[in-house]
Specification:
Number of helices: 20
CATH class of the largest domain: Alpha Beta
Strand content: 15-25%
Shape: globular
CATH architecture of the largest domain: 3-Layer(aba) Sandwich
Number of domains: 2
Bound molecules: pyridoxal-5'-phosphate
Number of strands: 23
Helix content: 25-40%
CATH superfamily of the largest domain: Glycogen Phosphorylase B
CATH topology of the largest domain: Rossmann fold
Length: about 600
């Protein structure tokens, strides 16, 4: 998947996973078998480092490592995937832990009426990885549940390797019910979820030990894995300071209501055999077990995912020391083949040093535009194949794709249909949507149906497509193939957002509410456009909404459409800035380098 121009000729070479040096297999003096795989080293030093070096154990309920492995639902999982991709490129010693989610998140179909239908998204782990013989046991209620793992190795061309453990309870000897614990990502009720979190947190720590991983720090990506702290407390004589020194917590949610919380009678029933619930209350809250609070209370380092999100988190948890490391995306993965080729020619080395994208300036406008038009054509072919809709290549195309859920406000652009019609008469627009609603998210489903309604209402005037079954592959096509990437979350609910960063890597211009990462990324009229007032402007909610709608329509009509159609050179300048002033910073290489220096080495 990954290929760097500067090392393409060396693709065939085996590399030392510690220092990255190319190795000739036949002549290699240092090699060793670990967990069923053979590794080659340049020296005894690297071999020893590989075997003994402590690693960061990165725990995440969802991981998006590739489209065919559907163990992710949205931005959180894709971010986890980018953490792994960048860590491998940078040879950061990381091991990731997640659940196997055999039936995935969901496969989405949408009826012609706009109703979402969901199907299991089954996958077969044995097609991609194998399962080491070691198993561990966790107590859930009064039952011993056996857990095994599937070991996937993400390899970078730089030599770096990140193993990913997909935990699986579908093991002979478990009851049929327990065999299903790791089936559905975010499926089932809260009992099912708590069982999953016991497997992930407690089972995960045990599995790392069973597989002989030497772990220096435990990084919890969101609160789902915070039961791992209980296992660490037990292993460290209940010494809170020792556990805190081992733990890092990244929170992703700016609202109290969205935190995972479990009633203590349920916790008592399922967890008591593993950990005394009375003691747990001290760290996880008195009335309900709050997984965010648990992670926060037992981590020395906690961060939000943007500066704005850090500010909110500090308000939510006064007295806690909360820092921020702003998210990024994996540059190579999220750059279309057309821009990769261009960057390879003008900015060699960009993929492993994305900060070099700051030097995008000298790339001629025509070449930027040509690469963009190729990506746009590729997207339009894909849309024709998938949805049978033919979009017009010269028309300003606006993209909006993300999880279908209320706070993302996918329908904000339809707030005033007459104005949208009028805008379309001034300069034509077309709209592309995609996104899955969680099966229990009634409002999310209603939003999809509402968009289908507008599609019908505007038929013959504005072309609108809604693509089914949004996933990483589609995200890559959409964020590179449209002209403008629209983002209209309700502040402060978008802790970060990352799809706009993918767009920026492809010269696609962001048009977004000032929330999450865009507060840091937006230079008005230079890197893109803002919708509505800055987050610190004290306006009440209904007024803010009116201001947002005004901005959305006015900027489309008076700035975006005229620039796109009449001042193409200015447009391309902004595409250039999206790369040189946005992508160069909002990438996961920068993000991981900061995790290393600020959290992992703490
Ligand atoms: C990047 C990505 C997301 C995140 O999108 P946001 O707009 O940041 O919420 C969600 N789903 C998929 C499949 C993605 O690739």
């Amino acid at each position: 998947m990954i290929g760097y121009a500067q090392s393409r000729e060396e693709n065939v070479a085996v590399r030392d996973p510690v220092c990255g040096m190319p190795i000739e297999k036949e002549k290699a003096k240092f090699k060793t078998e670990v967990r069923g795989r053979l590794y080659y080293f340049c020296s005894e030093y690297c071999q020893r480092r590989f075997l003994e070096r402590p690693r960061i154990a990165y725990f995440s309920m969802e991981i998006g490592i590739r489209s065919e492995i559907p163990t992710y639902s949205g931005g959180l999982g894709v971010l986890a995937g980018d953490v792994i991709r960048s860590s491998a490129d940078l040879r950061i010693p990381l091991v990731a832990v997640t659940l196997v989610s055999r039936k995935g998140y969901l496969k989405q179909k949408i009826t012609s009426e706009g109703d979402q239908l969901e199907y299991p998204d089954e996958w077969s782990p044995s097609e991609y990885m194998d399962s080491p013989p070691q198993t561990v046991t966790v107590k859930i209620g009064d039952r011993n549940v056996k857990v095994r793992s599937w070991l996937y190795e993400y390899q970078s061309l730089t030599g770096g390797i990140v193993p990913i453990l997909f935990l699986d309870t579908d093991v002979e000897g478990n009851t049929p019910e327990d065999r299903g614990i790791t089936d559905y990502l975010y499926g089932g009720d809260e009992r099912y979820r708590l069982k999953q979190e016991i497997v992930l947190g407690i089972g995960g720590v045990r599995m790392l030990e069973a597989l002989n991983f030497n772990v220096a720090k435990y990084h919890m990506n969101e609160g789902h894995s915070s039961l791992l702290t209980l296992e660490l407390l037990k292993r460290n004589d209940m010494n809170v300071d020792k556990v805190k020194n081992l733990c890092i917590f990244t929170t992703h949610t700016p609202v109290e209501a969205a935190f995972d919380k479990f009633p203590y009678d349920l916790v008592q029933e399922l967890l008591e055999e593993e950990f005394p619930v009375e003691t747990l209350k001290r760290y996880g809250g008195e009335d309900r077990l709050n997984m965010t609070l648990l992670a926060l209370n037992l981590s020395k380092y906690t961060n939000g995912v943007t500066k704005e999100h850090m500010e909110y988190s500090r308000k939510l948890f006064p007295g806690h020391h909360i820092m921020s490391i702003t998210n990024g995306v994996h540059s190579y993965t999220w750059t279309s083949p057309y821009f990769r080729e261009l960057f390879d020619r003008y900015i060699p080395g960009w993929a492993n040093e994305p900060e070099l994208l700051v030097r995008v300036g000298p790339i001629p406008d025509e070449e930027i535009w040509a690469a963009h038009m190729k990506a746009k054509a590729a997207l339009f072919n894909f849309i024709k194949e998938r949805a049978g809709v033919e979009l017009d290549i010269d028309t300003l195309t606006i993209g909006f794709a993300r999880r279908a859920t209320a706070y993302k406000r996918a329908t904000l652009i339809f707030s005033d249909i007459e104005r949208l019609r009028e805008i379309n008469r001034k300069g034509r627009i077309q709209l592309v949507f995609a996104g899955k609603a969680h099966p229990k998210d009634i409002e999310g489903k209603r939003i999809i149906k509402e968009i289908y309604g507008y599609m019908r209402e505007l038929e013959g005037e504005i072309k609108i497509v809604y693509l089914e079954n949004y996933n990483m592959e589609m995200a890559a096509k959409l964020t590179s193939g449209v002209d403008v990437w629209l983002n209209t979350p309700l502040p402060p609910l978008e802790a970060s957002g990352t799809s706009g960063m993918k767009a920026a890597h492809n010269g696609v211009i962001n048009f977004s509410v000032l929330d999450g990462w865009w507060v840091e990324g937006c230079v008005e009229g230079v890197t893109g456009w803002a919708i509505g007032p800055p987050p610190d402007e004290p306006v009440e909610e209904s007024k803010r909404r009116r201001m947002e709608i005004e901005d959305l329509y006015n900027k489309l009509k008076y700035l975006i459409i005229p620039t796109f159609y009449d001042r193409r050179d200015e447009w391309i300048d902004m595409m250039n800035n999206s790369i040189g002033k946005v992508a160069y910073y909002f990438n996961s290489h920068r993000m991981m380098q900061r995790y290393v220096t600020e959290a992992y080495l703490l």
